[in-house]
Amino acid sequence: MSLERLPPDLGNFILGETVFNTEEEPDHCLREKGQLQDRGIVLINTPDLLLPEISEHKLTEHIENCVRLSDPGPHVFLLVLQPEDLIEEDKQRLQSILETFSGQSFDHSLVLISTPRERSGLMETYMEHPPLKDMVIKCRYRYLKRKGLELPELLTRLGQTAKENNGEHVSCDVFKDTTSTLPADHQSPKQIETETPITSAVKAAGLHLVNKFH
C-alpha cells in the first residue's frame, strides 16, 4: 500500500482507549467518540479508498458517508502516508479523492508521514521522493513525522490547521443532500453551536473535535 488507511492503533492512540478492532479492516465508515480533557472528539474512519478494485460507485458511497457523519463538512483531513510505497498513480488518486470532497480540501489537509519500514531508510531521503514531496507542497507544507509523535503535538497541529482556515469547514456542496438522514446522536454542529468539527481523511478517515480551539 502506498497510503495507510488510518491504522487502528493510531485511532486508539488519538482517542486514548481501545475502540477500533486492530485485527480487521472496516468495510464501512466507523465513527467513534472520545473525550480529551475539556474537548470532545469523534473519529471517523473509512475503508481503504485507494484499493484499485474499488468501484467508482462504492468510492462515492464511502465519501458521502464520511461527509454525512461530519456534517456540515470536514475541517481537517489527516493524510497518513507510507513514504517508501507512495507512487505517482496513488498520489494522483488521493488528490482526486480529496477534490471529490471539495477543491478546498488541500487547504484543510495535514500530512502524517509514517516511519519507513526499512531500517536503512532515512526520512530525509524519503522527503525528497517526488510523490510525497508533491503532496506536502500541495497541502501547504503541513506535515508531521509519526516517529516519536506525541498526542498533544498532533492535536495542536490539527487545531492550527483549523485556525488557518478561520474555523471554516470544507464545503462539500456536491453531497449537500446526503446529510438530511443523519441520526439524532450525529446531529450537525449547525445545531450545536459549541462544536467545531475536524474531520481527517486517511484514505479517508475523520477527526471531529467538539470544542473550539484557542
Automatic annotation (TrEMBL):
One of the record's GO molecular function terms: GTP binding
Record-linked Gene3D superfamilies: P-loop containing nucleotide triphosphate hydrolases (3.40.50.300)
KW Zinc-finger (keyword) present: no
Keywords from the UniProt entry: GTP-binding, Nucleotide-binding
Sequence ranges assigned to domain AIG1-type G in this UniProt record: 11-178
InterPro entries xrefs: G_AIG1 (IPR006703), GIMA/IAN/Toc (IPR045058), P-loop_NTPase (IPR027417)
Presence of the UniProt keyword Ion transport in the record: no
Family: Belongs to the TRAFAC class TrmE-Era-EngA-EngB-Septin-like GTPase superfamily. AIG1/Toc34/Toc159-like paraseptin GTPase family. IAN subfamily.
Protein name as catalogued: AIG1-type G domain-containing protein
